[in-house]
Amino acid sequence: KIFNLCLSCIFVNEHYLMVKDEFELLKKGEQNEIEPYQDEIGRLIINPKEIAQDLCCQAWDIPDPMENAELVNELIEEALKYDKNCCDAYVLKSLICSNDTEKMKNLDLAIKGYETIHDANFFKNHIGSFHGPEFNPYMKSFYYKAELLIKLKKQEEAQKIIFLLLDLDKNDHIGARCLL
């Protein structure tokens, strides 16, 4: 009973802190004119990074992004208004570009955006286990960059990126080995 009570207290305390954080974001949002956003299932989201990610998830769900490039681009641009460092938005943008130079530029922006919001300790603490939703955009940006480099006949640069991906995620959840 004491254990369950402790767990309940922890849950209530964490829930309180989450609500308090969301309230602080809402107050900041009022100052910065960030309007609350409702996702597809009706959840109210007030964190700009979460809003950007939700918009990107909607864009990823669109079948055949090249055919629906205009709609995908609208979602990307909206996401970047909420979070200018949104890695997923730049990865998506690279996928709908027809120009290889633009693709590379957007993939570099995706990588830079992710590295901007995470410090060196983050990378140091997670090396070897970069797998999961919080790492996927970063890993995808490198994967697509390696694919593009192979297409551009820059095998040595691609190989360096592939080995970096394998260092970041030892179990190779993204399938970088397939590019070798």
Characterization of the model:
This protein has helices spanning 2-32, 48-60, 69-82, 87-96, 100-117, 120-126, 136-151, 155-168, and strands at 37-38, 44-45. It is mainly α and 180 residues long. A hairpin with a 5-residue loop joins strand 1 and strand 2 (44-45). The radius of gyration is 19 Å and the shape is globular. The model is unreliable at 1-20 (pLDDT under 50).
> Alpha-carbon distance between the termini?
55 Å
The number of helices is 8
Percent helix, as a range, is 55-70%
* Order of SSEs: HEEHHHHHHH
- Global Rg: 19 Å
Number of strands: 2
List the uncertain runs. Answer: 1-20
How much β-strand is present in the residues?
Answer: under 5%
Overall pLDDT confidence: 82
Structural class: mainly alpha
Coarse shape: globular
Major sheet details: 2 strands, antiparallel
